[in-house]
Amino acid sequence: MLNREEKAQVRERFKLKIHESDGQAFETLFTKIMRYAEPDFQQIKPWGNIGDRKNDGYIKSKGIYFQVYAPENIQNNYLEIIKKLETDFAGLLKQWNQSTPIKEFYFVVNDKYKGVNADAEQVMKNIVDNNNLSNGEIKTASDLEDLLFKLADDQIEIIIGHIYNPTDISILNYSDLNVIISHIMQSSIPIESIKDWHVPDWNTKIQFNNLSEGTKSLLDQGSIQIENLENYLNNNSNSLSTELCKKIREIYSEEKQNSSGDELFWKIVLRISPKDENSYVSAVVAIIAKYFETCDIFEKPTEDK
C-alpha cells in the first residue's frame, strides 16, 4: 500500500500527465484507468466515417456511458463544452439508447484542475431530469485522480510509471504541503473577495488557547486566503484535502506535547514552512487559519471550562 510520500509522488506525476494530455492523449489516460476500475468497461473506438457515435466507452451491463472531452484551454471553451455536452448526448440517445438503454451518463472533461462553469453543470442536470436517468455528472481531473488512488498499487504504477523508493524522495522534491504553499503564494485575491471578507468568529477560541493579540492578527489576515485554499482543494482530489488535514493535525499533536499558546502556534508554523521568510510564513498561516476555524487544531472551548 502506498505511503504518504509515494502518494505525493503519484499525485504530482498524475497532475503532470493531466496538464500534458489534450484530445486523444486524455482519452487514452481515461481509458487506462477505467479498464482497471471497471472490468466490464468497453472502449468504443471511431470506425471509418461513422466515428464512435458519441460514445467513447460504456459499461454495457449497467447502461453507463462516457463521453470524453479535452480542450487545450477550458476557460476559453466553456461555451463549446455546453454545446458539445448537448449534442453528444443527443447523438448518444439516437444511436445507442434503443440497443442498450442509457441509465447513467458521464461527461469527462480535462479541466486541468480549474473546475467547470456552473452553466455546464446545469445543462447536465437538465439532461438527467429530462431523460429520467438514474445519474449523470460532469467528471473532471480531480474525479479521475480519486479513481486512480482506488486502484491497486501495481495498476497505478503501470499508469503513471515507476514509483521511486521513499528513501530517494528528497531528491525528487515531491511535497503536498510545498505545492499548496506555493499555490497560495502565487494566488491573487479578487477585490470582490476582499470586499466580502469577514474574519471568522474565533475570539473565544483564541482566548481559550492563550493566544496573543499578535497571533490573532496573523490568523485574521490569513483567513482572507481560506476561500482560495478551499477552492484549490476542491479542484483537486479528495485525497489531497484528507492528507493535508491529517498532516496538519499530526504536527499539532506532536508539538502540543511540550508547548502551548503562542509558542505552540509558532512551532507549528516553522514545522510547516519550507523557509523562514515572510511570504512563506504568510501562506502557512493561511493554512493554519483554515484548520483553526474548523477546530481540527487547537482546543475547542467548552462550556464547563
In short:
Helices cover 54% and strands 8% of the residues.
Notable features of this structure?
Restriction Endonuclease; alpha/beta; five-stranded mixed sheet; 305 residues; 2 domains
Describe the protein's architecture and organization:
By secondary structure, the protein is an alpha/beta fold. It has two domains: 4-160, Restriction Endonuclease (3-Layer(aba) Sandwich); 175-293, no CATH class. 54% of the residues lie in helices and 8% in strands. It is built from 14 helices and five strands. It has a five-stranded mixed beta sheet with strand order 1-2-3-4-5, with helices on both faces. The model is unreliable at 48-52 and 167-174 (pLDDT under 50).
- Low-pLDDT runs of 5+ residues are 48-52, 167-174
CATH architecture of the largest domain: 3-Layer(aba) Sandwich
Strand content: 5-15%
Considering DSSP H and I runs of 4 or more, what fraction of the residues is helical? 40-55%
Cα-atom Rg, whole angstroms?
23 Å
Q: What coarse outline follows from CA principal-axis ratios? A: elongated
The CATH top-level class label of the largest domain = Alpha Beta
Distance between the termini: 43 Å
| SS elements, strand count | 5
Tally of DSSP helical segments: 14
Note the main sheet: 5 strands, mixed
User: Structural class given helices, strands, pairing?
Assistant: alpha/beta
The total tally of domains equals 2
Instruction: Write the H/E string, N to C.
Output: HHEEEHEHEHHHHHHHHHH
CATH topology title of the largest domain: Restriction Endonuclease
Strand order of the largest sheet: 1-2-3-4-5
Q: Mean pLDDT, rounded to whole units? A: 85
